[in-house]
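CORE FACILITY INTAKE
Project code: CF-77B
Contact: R.S. (postdoc)
Sample description: multi-component assembly, two entities in total
Requested service: structural model of the whole complex
Turnaround: standard
Below are the sequence entries exactly as provided by the requester. Do not edit them.
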Amino acid sequence: MKKRFLAMALTGVMAVTALTACESTPGGSSSADSSINVCIGSEPDTIDPALNSAVDGATLLVHLYSGLSKWEMNDSGVLEIVPDAAVELPEGVENADGTITYTYTLRDGLKWSDGQDLKASDFVYAWNRAASAELAADYGYMFEVVDGYNEVADVNEDGTPANPDAKLNVQAPDDKTIVVTLYNPVSYWNELLAFPTYFPVREDVVSNEAWATDPSTYVCNGPYKMASWEHNSLITLEKNDSFVDADQITMNTINFYLSDDQNNMLTNFKNGDWQLIDDIPTNEIASVKSEFNDQFVIAGQLGTYYVCWNVNEDILPAGSPYADDENAKAEIRRAVGLLFDRNYIVNDVAQGGELPASSFVSMGLTDADGSQFYKNVGVSSDFDGYYNVSADAYTDNFNEAVEILKKYYTYDETSGKFTDFPVLTYIYNTSEGHKAIGEYLQNAMAGIGITMNLENQEWATFLNTRKDGAYSIARNGWLADYNDPICFLDMWTTDSGNNDVQFGRGDHADDAVYSIDLTPYGFDTKVENGTWAETYDVLISSIKSCTDNDNRYKMMHEAEDMIMSTGCICPLYFYTDMYLLSDKVDGFFSNPLGYKYFMYTTIK
Amino acid sequence: MNSKTVAYIIKRIILAVVTVWVVITVTFFVMHAVPGGPFLGEKAISEAAQKALEAKYGLDKPLFIQYVTYLKDIVTRFDFGPSLKQRGRTVTDVIFDGMKTSAFIGLIAAVIALISGIILGAVAALRRNTLMDRIVMVLTTAFVSMPSFIMGSLLLILFTVKFHIFPANGAASGGLILPIITLSLSPMAYITRLTRSSMLDVLGQDYIRTAKAKGVPYLKIIFGHALKNSLLPVITYFGPMLAYIVTGSLVVEQIFAVPGIGRAFITSITGRDYPMIMGTTIILATLIVIMNLVSDIMYKIVDPRITLE
């Protein structure tokens, strides 16, 4: 039986990694009444391209809009970024001050779905809107690379825009030309242009605040128009015949059924009513896998499931001579991270085709030369990442961890257990999957005498607890928005809203145990025994201002080395996107961000 | 209706308004006391965006001011505010949209439950201790005690997976039939049991014996006297039941993918969508209060001996 299964080929075309699931390419003829029924999630919070921050929303948006670039699968089955509304994606021109300017020309014949011409100024308006403090979009920061963003996004103490008249450095000298200037060269810029936040919207359309909630007011410029939206039930997209590439679109109607009940999805898939469902009940994975072997797809995703420690949690026994020694605590946390059998977690607990993780920056993100970033960590030539996650290395890892811990804790040789490890509490948000993993971790630690209690919290409470650092160990996960390791690294600066570990905060603010030397990369920075703020924060801002791509990636490796050395981040597995796709469907593909593309599909 | 009754109704309406106000107040302050906020996500938004959003929705103001503003908007403009999660949509819009479906299937289910429950209950009472009675009692015991997620799943497996009679999603034609049946079974069973026991009770009353002795025709005794008088407990139960059933059931909506309002109760809370939490709570509270009032008035109509005061 043909296995349509994890085409694990890692391809580095255009610095884009394609971990895709399907071998079919666009093509086939369009029949008048072709339609496909899919379910990728429940009612989207929004399908305003500027406000959307969800993957299911993005899937709808890539069918409704056409940005300057787009993801496409080429004839050899490799995903790449190609021009869409733009004639081509030219190289940028570097200015004297280090900024970089791109000039795009729009294709002829671009129209809005209500028949009006699409103008370059629509992009300019849309980008300024999406970045503005006034809109306060989740993904407004996607424009942080564009010159002028810092002024546009700034707010006063009371939340009003600090510079209401500020604009991004984006111009439309005529109806066909867009000129945009970035602070620095950005390797993933073409990919950003394909991101929904960068899609155009028209000012007169979005002036109605409810425009994106009803088909009658929803004006878009992509391959599809919204035909109907029954809230919480069904969104129907119809092919837009005035779309400039309409002749390539093979699927006439896409019905997006809105449900988040996995059992209901599975029933509809089994009945043959729905051709793709994006979620499978965890306890049915094994049986679904065997029943629908050739329709069960696991695609790579840019994300890491991990456990994070609160850096300020006291984990040494009472009266330990190492009580305030951050280096000792780091060594302990790294050792605990080696106690876990990641192969067991992915094969027997999670079961969704996930891959054991040995680094925080996930598989799929590429290095300066297009190779896998996590394979270039350089800790050992025997394995990739920071520790060996092959199944036969587990015993060695475990024994090594025990040896390290013996330095700090009393070990009872007869029982093989530590007797004075403080009791820990692991928090996770309520979910069967997270619970099962928590129970595994609890068992693994109990095996050597460490007691870890489990505590589940309801989602919003959990987020609050973790953000405030009111925990000792917590479940965590991170999905990249674009293929650049910086999305995994800039979240750990002292003031970052995602700094759940509390690096550089509380007692850790004064721990001067970190060193960086950026002189090899052209920076005049060398710090020995500095605090987190003096080292990591400086490193990240240097990465962001670095104009040399090779040096930039080397510094990102240093940044990951730093966070991994603290032991506060304990990666467990790399996420995968698991779904069921009917074998009647041809021409489907998905991208590493999890967006699914139905426009080139045909039904057999 | 005499003046006493009118005074009673007015009193009850005032009481109802006070009840809803208390519900609003308690919900409002408890909701804000729970940790977490509407703009939290796995990925934190920037501090600037957080501040801008709080300013936009007035969440930066002192809690009491927010409370007063909220009450004022409801009373003066009947404005329940915007949804914080589904941007661009108002709470009224979201609730109205979901209520269309929920109220539709809820009302049908309630009517089915009421009619079939009363008939079955009456039959079981009149044929007490026969096979018929036993069957009815066994089935109703099962339906009352079986939670809707089991009943729903059973029906789904039977009629959708095995026999392909009905679709598994509420948007398809015929997709609302199974949800309606699922919703109606438990209240139907309950009404059956209430009617049966109450009917048995009434049938033993002196006035029934008197009627029989006077030679009143059998059917007239049953429908004119016994049944009417045995409906009091059903009325008590039916009012609040109707309020719950028309405001949707998360379980049934999930199982059958019905686009109702039930899920909004849960998602608004998990997402800390404050105006949605308030809106859904107010709707449910108001309906229950109204239904209770209607039940009380129905008592009076059914049983003139009851005085409302």
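Facility notes:
- Chain A has 15 helices and 25 strands.
- Residues 1-30 of chain A have pLDDT under 50 and may be disordered.
Invoice: internal transfer
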